[in-house]
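User: Can you write out an input/output pair for a complex, sequences first and structure second?

Assistant: Here is one pair. Inputs:
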Amino acid sequence: MIMSNIIFHIDVNNAFLSWSAVELLNKGSKVDIREECAVIAGDETKRCGVVLARSIEAKKKGVITGESLFNARRKCSNLKVYPPNHDLYEKMSGKLFELISEFTSDVEIVSIDECYVDYGKVKNLYGNEIMFAYKLKNIIKQKLGFTVNIGIANNKLCAKMASNFSKPDKVHTLYEDEIKDKMWILPIDELYGVGEKTSEKLKVININTIGDLANFKPNELYKYFKKQTTKMIDMANGIDNSIMKYDEVCQKGISHSTTLERDLIEKEELYKILQSIAEKITMALRGQNKYTYVVAVILRDKFFNNYTHQTKLKNATDMPDEIFQISKRLFNEMWNLEPIRLIGIRVDQLVSKDNYQLSIFEDFKEREKQSKLEKIITKLKEKYGNNVIIKASLVRRNGKK
DNA sequence: TCTGGGGTCCTAGGACCC
DNA sequence: TCTGGGGTCCTAGGACCC
């Protein structure tokens, strides 16, 4: 018999809002903002007024994460709005993962407020997974003051889907034989990886639930989704072979962007902002002991059109002025003079400084080898004439057509 | 005073090479 | 003379997630 995996997905309920609630209570506040119709949202005067997290009451009124406060207020006239506190969230996140790691080190952190646990590895120690999940969620609530959902399944995808069932403070399972009853009945946009655009397309061909997708003819679906088809149908069937990633995976890129308080067309002002962003990027790069090979500038104009323009460098860098000068050039090449709402820089293809030094060294060794070879060829030519050695690449080129 | 910021992954098209 | 094909790299944009 094949031992199947047991994976937990642990997800903080309304993380930012819960964490702010705990902090306010600790500071002596009499109200628990989780009980109000409340949201955590950015500053409207800085044009960052979007909902980052909402309470259950706000959710009931139809408030969605990511929507403007303007819209949210229309749905809920007595909406309470609290500012985000990212330092606090980092701290609370750290406490959560620290607590979980007291039980097991087989943890994959996927974002500030969620992780996977390979429970199969510790089942011998703690016993039945459902019992343990209840225990763990209660310990978190008791020690840290906020609630989590735990999804239990045989793979990461199903665990993730399970933790998303009813909330808050719940444990759910989604084993293989439960997929039909628990997952297929859900609307298609609740499938992980199916967002707004894909679900719109799916609804056009009458796929409205996850079950509809799971049972759709693959070759029919192929007409619309090409290479993505197999993956989509697999996911609707709860099939996922992705493995746990325990090691901290190297970050691929770093970006910084800012929405301006008003739309700007003044070049010099935009340069100044670009420069300060370049400095922040540099700090982040140096913090990770990395250089970058790719610099990109990101723009959003007043019409909400997004543009990016990037370039690959010959030599990786972490120099603020170099990154700024490149960004300035990219900006000038790209900007169509429309007023700018958002400006940013992204760096990509990062390389650790240690590896980079090594590659320069390798390069150097290669060049040295090359120059030795050139010297030998010169000597041979002196002795036997010019035709004695013809580079392979030249032979190939001359021999062709 | 409607629409954040930081990520990842995928795709398509063009350039270029063999 | 009539228009290969496979591979890789690079860029821009889109979609999605938290």
